[in-house]
Sequence to fold (341 residues):
Amino acid sequence: MKHRDLIAALPKAELHLHIEGSMEPEMMFELAARNGIDIPYANVEEVRSAYNFTQLQDFLDIYYEGMAVLREEQDFYDLTMAYLKRSHADNVRHVEMFFDPQGHTTRGIAFETAVSGISRALNDGKKTLGMSSYLILSFLRHLSEEDAFETLAEAEPYLDQFIGVGLDSSEIGHPPSKFARVFARAREMGLKLCAHSGEEGPPDYVREALDILHIDRMDHGNRSMEDESLVQEIVDSGMVLTVCPLSNLKLGVIKDMTDSPVRRMLDAGIAVTLNSDDPAYFGGYMNANFEATADALNLTGADIITLVQNSFQGSFLPPAEIATYLEAVGKAAGSVSSETG
Ligand code: ADE
Ligand code: ZN
Fold:
């Protein structure tokens, strides 16, 4: 595999990761046993073979079902710590992590239980692994505006633990404009704004995310490529896109890795980044996403370095910390190229 060493050596930021989507089947069984919960699978292999999706909704149905095993604060801690350790092995140094509070509160789990467990693990990850991190509260777009407002109100006592809000779940039929007022309120609260846009939804939804929600970062954004003037707007505004190549493949957003828009995005001058989305469900963490994309699209070493630089530049970190990470990227890139001549 061409570039494997470079990909492994580069420090990276992951900007699109749903913590609930990092639950490996082994952990699902462990938590189910610990909490006395029945799950509809006999073993890990059965779980994995259920991960056969043709569209986003197929995945979401199984993803929400899988959350049932998360009940105690310690469960959220263990889930988060497992992700941090796994991604640290891929040289991920900074993560901006989504969580879906409504996936828990709608099953009777307190907002606080989820947020405390995740935050405690993120703090420990800083100390023990040296990983920096931010948490992003994501609204489920298939639920109502009122539900989102209630969730935002619940989040208020914990505001210091979030950097921003996101918008995920079933895209088609739930355009960004449905959440215009919630996002305006989140902005007033000082939060950054992200939204899944153009994963399955049309370019019009991407426009709404830009013009009505006034997002700071776009998740996926694939279908923006269908509209040349939209591409130009994205380039001119410096909007960062968090593309998830293996997720795109598993969810039928692309038919083959060679159809990934990453090459075209780089060529158009879009600040694109690579991410794992829900790695336990889509078959790979950060480095696997980089390797599969680099192989399919014949990315050069310089392309890979650009993608990694974009990940730090597109983060919500303060400029001084971004500069420190970029310096580390430059050093790692230099040492790999001098080794390989
Ligand atoms: N929730 C978790 N992963 C998602 C994805 N890829 N799209 C929409 N909602 C999600
Ligand atoms: Zn996502």
Observations:
- The domain at 4-340 is CATH 3.20.20.140 (TIM Barrel).
- The longest helix spans residues 319-340.
- The two ends are 17 Å apart (CA to CA).
- The first strand starts at residue 12 and ends at 18.
